[in-house]
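Typical record is below.
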Amino acid sequence: MATRDPRIDAYIKKAQPFAKPILTHLRSVVHDACPGVQETLKWGVPHFDYKGIFCGMAAFKAHTTFGFWKGALLKDHLPKVDEKAMGQFGRITSMDDLPGKPTLARIVKAAARLNDDGVKVARMAKTKKPPLEMPADLMSALARNKKALANFKAFPPGQQREYNAWIIEARQDATRAKRIKTAVEWIAEGKIRNWKYVK
């Protein structure tokens, strides 16, 4: 049975005035065309799940977006959009930017059939990034703190790379020195570079 998430109500309520009718309309069409869809928030924006991740919408200051997780497999059903934006409908600034309700419902149903049939989207293979050479001044600072050095060596390559890049990207010597000091403190505590954003 379809579920409605009160967080989506709150999201729509906070959206810009132009976006509210668009989001409300999209939500209604998705529920009507795909009974059993469930609402949730992913990446801080409204998403709909149906036998897996399905579609989502988002509101910004001057436009909204709407798109399907398997949009690459729906090209024959989707309108041609010149402008690039998140989703497959470009920058939606009014109801006029969307196909009519029957057309939109047909697209939602086609997307639902993909999930019904268990169709998977081929994902691009990840390419391994070459290692970043550790800055000598960071290595020297870590060498003076045994705990930080041990933690850094225990980090996966990607987390080591984030610290190395952060130091290398500093444009001024004072900024670099400050970042190294902060990095050693965080690493000694076992914190990854972007620890503040980890939930």
